[in-house]
Write a structure and sequence with these properties.
By secondary structure, the protein is mainly beta. It is 14% helix and 40% strand. The protein has one domain: 2,3-Dihydroxybiphenyl 1,2-Dioxygenase, domain 1, CATH 3.10.180.10.
């Protein structure tokens, strides 16, 4: 699943611009008083102003061989979120290694190196190493129903999980992470999972608003 653009909402656009442009050094594409977009490999990350925005959990793919370099690069810029003292977290069943940190909105941001993609790089790690936006997480108290809705928009396969607590849909290039806030909290922070509005464009084109899917035309 390809994610061409992910549009998230923020109550403090300036702080997010400063974080992504100055801390992570992402390239700004277009900015104004109400929104700002960043180049993230083959995807684009956009923030728009909204007074009642809530925290997100999303991920970027990085080259399959760059988790250790990404660790050192990130530690110069952010405070990593470890799990059981490990800053590089091994997802053996997904054949991937991931690193987590907060942005200025306390969104949980993930860099993940998926070994099965076998996309390696010989270049030193930098913001230019980001391959694409690879995961967008959303809350659902009825995962089976949410899966059905997404499949009514466009067929999508289950990648991992179940229809009760946690389910990943899509493939290693792009995944929807469905999590039941009644049964689970966000990994690895144990933050509460909230229903957060967003807009996605690419293989799927819809607005997720107040827990409902609105297809874009």
């Amino acid at each position: 699943m390809k994610i061409e653009e992910l549009i998230l909402f923020t109550q403090n656009l300036k702080a997010q611009i400063d974080f992504y442009s100055k801390v992570l050094e992402f390239e700004m594409i277009d900015c104004n008083e109400s929104s700002c977009s960043f180049n993230t490999g083959s995807s684009m990350l956009t923030f728009k102003v909204k007074e009642d925005s809530k925290p997100y959990h999303f991920a970027f793919n990085i080259p399959s061989n760059k988790e250790k370099e990404a660790l050192h690069w990130l530690k110069e810029r952010v405070t990593l979120i470890p799990f059981e003292e490990d800053e590089i977290i091994d997802f053996e069943s997904w054949n991937a290694k991931a690193l987590y940190f907060y942005d200025s909105d306390m969104n949980i941001v993930e860099f993940i190196a998926r070994k099965s993609l076998n996309i390696n790089s010989s270049n030193a790690f930098s913001f230019k190493s980001i391959l694409n936006i690879s995961e967008m997480a959303l809350a659902s108290t009825n995962i089976k129903e949410t899966v059905a809705v997404l499949n009514s928009i466009k067929p999508i396969k289950k990648y991992s999980g179940d229809y009760n607590r946690f389910c990943a849909l899509g493939d290693e290039e792009g995944l929807f992470i469905l999590a039941n806030p009644l049964l689970k909290k966000w990994f690895p922070t144990d933050d509460e999972i909230e229903v957060s509005d967003f807009i996605i464009k690419g293989d799927f084109n819809f607005e997720f608003k107040n827990g409902k899917f609105i297809e874009l035309t």
